Amino acid sequence: MRETRVSRIIKSEDLNHHGTLYAGRMAEWLVEACLITTINLTRKPEDVVCVRIHGFDFRKPAMTGDVIEIRARVAYLGGKSITVSAEVFVNEGNTPSVTGMLTFVTVDRQGRPYDHGLTLSQSYIEENRDIYEVALAARKQR
Ligand SMILES: CC(C)(COP(=O)(O)OP(=O)(O)OC[C@H]1O[C@@H](n2cnc3c(N)ncnc32)[C@H](O)[C@@H]1OP(=O)(O)O)[C@@H](O)C(=O)NCCC(=O)NCCS
Fold first, then answer.
1. 78 lines ligand 1 (CB under 6 A)
2. Alpha carbon of 128 to ligand 1 centroid (Å)
3. pLDDT digits 0-9 by tens, 77-91
4. Which residue of 63, 72, 76, 116 is most buried, as measured by CB atoms within 10 A?
């Protein structure tokens, strides 16, 4: 199960009225990276819909000319759901400037949820325990 990595350069059309990266643009890129992660897993793009954007944390601003890298990983697999966690690094920094988590559901042609039949290996859970625990806690809160 591979991590998705997407790089972008911040351009003038990506900025907000403060001259920093606009949250709406960042959110769009982050959702897309998480969707790609889900599609890479299911191999059925037509069957995937987003059911929840858990939230985004914008910790540090990004400026025009900055290069960002979005890294998205599967955090949790339910029966019909797939939760993906993403981190955004600016100019190859070591700590994420933005984080976010989304949940997708597999649906048939009528839009009805179905079991995707996918599971996480124990070794994957151990390697990704930080995001697994966050996704599990979010699931329990519902
Ligand atoms: C996705 C959708 C079919 C789910 O319908 P539903 O009646 O809630 O389905 P179910 O109750 O069977 O739940 C299916 C899975 O979704 C999960 N789920 C449903 N609502 C959720 C939510 N708000 N947050 C997280 N997970 C959710 C359930 O936990 C379940 O996962 P599991 O099998 O891992 O336990 C329906 O909500 C829908 O069509 N939403 C619109 C999707 C869309 O248009 N997305 C684009 C946004 S612009």
1. yes
2. 24
3. 999 999 999 999 999
4. 72
